[in-house]
Write a structure and sequence with these properties.
Blueprint: E1 14-17, E2 23-28, H1 34-43, H2 46-53, H3 62-68, E3 76-85, E4 88-100, E5 105-112, H4 121-136, E6 140-146, H5 150-158, E7 162-165, E8 172-178, H6 189-201
Parallel strand pairs: 5-6
Antiparallel strand pairs: 1-2, 2-3, 3-4, 4-5, 6-8, 7-8
Helix pairs in contact: 4-6
Bound molecules: coenzyme A (COA).
């Protein structure tokens, strides 16, 4: 996956909808998003930032910012959800995910701009992450959240995740779901592209 080329990244974009039917775009982060993603995290409420990073941060530390801007490096990826607001493409949510090949699992964390919470953005983004996980070959998708984060716990429950204790930290709870994306639906670009490349690799494809 570290073979991703910048000019190819846009083809992995998807258009999703809020509960009210407004369209938003989910795409890999790009170097040109640096200022916008810094602004996004700075504008999150203290509580949302705390829940996202499990600690008090006023903004993304430089090291973490650099990690956020890397796509495909060590099978780690950042996607941003954007909407046109007053004529500008604006980040309204983000998710970072890592594919663990040895366990065929995909781990993720996400956040939604406080002004856009409660519109179904995370629900749609989670479905999209499941599809991206399937495209990478993951069999399970999981995340960790603070036990006190009732919103995330409720969202995970409604999205069909099961809960287990975190292996190392009693303050966290882990939510986990078996990946079940029906290929016939092909609900995300990553899945479609992975299916095409599998087809091209299969011996019968050359026949
Ligand atoms: C958790 C979070 C991602 C949810 O995003 P969202 O886009 O608001 O979620 P949705 O609108 O899709 O809502 C999904 C469900 O979450 C729950 N939920 C959403 N907002 C809620 C609120 N203010 N209070 C309680 N539950 C809430 C509800 O169960 C909701 O389902 P419903 O609308 O059918 O009742 C968002 O609150 C957030 O970014 N929080 C800060 C970062 C964070 O906690 N990240 C998770 C740890 S990695």
């Amino acid at each position: 996956m570290s073979s991703y080329r910048l000019e190819d990244l846009k083809q992995y974009s998807d258009t999703l909808r809020t509960r009210q039917g407004e369209a938003f775009n989910v795409r890999f982060i790009e170097p040109g998003d640096t200022d916008e993603i810094k602004h996004y995290f700075r504008s999150l409420s203290t509580r949302s930032r705390y829940n996202r990073f499990f600690g008090a941060l006023s903004e993304l530390p430089k090291g973490l910012l650099n990690e956020f801007l890397q796509v495909g490096e060590r099978e780690r990826f950042t996607v941003v959800a954007t909407m046109m607001v007053d004529g500008f493409e604006t980040i309204v949510a983000e998710a970072r995910y890592a594919f663990h090949g040895e366990t065929s699992t995909l781990e993720f964390g996400l956040s939604v701009d406080d002004r856009w919470q409660g519109h179904g953005i995370a629900t749609a983004l989670l479905k999209n992450l499941e599809c991206r996980a399937a495209a990478l070959g993951a069999e399970h998708i999981f995340g960790d959240t603070l036990r006190s984060n009732q919103t995330m716990i409720s969202l995970a429950r409604k999205s069909g995740f099961a809960f287990v204790n975190h292996p190392d930290d009693w303050k966290l709870v882990r939510f986990d779901k078996e990946i079940d994306v029906a290929p016939k639906d092909i609900p995300c670009a990553s899945w479609r592209l992975a299916a095409l490349s599998r087809q091209a690799d299969s011996p019968s494809a050359s026949a």
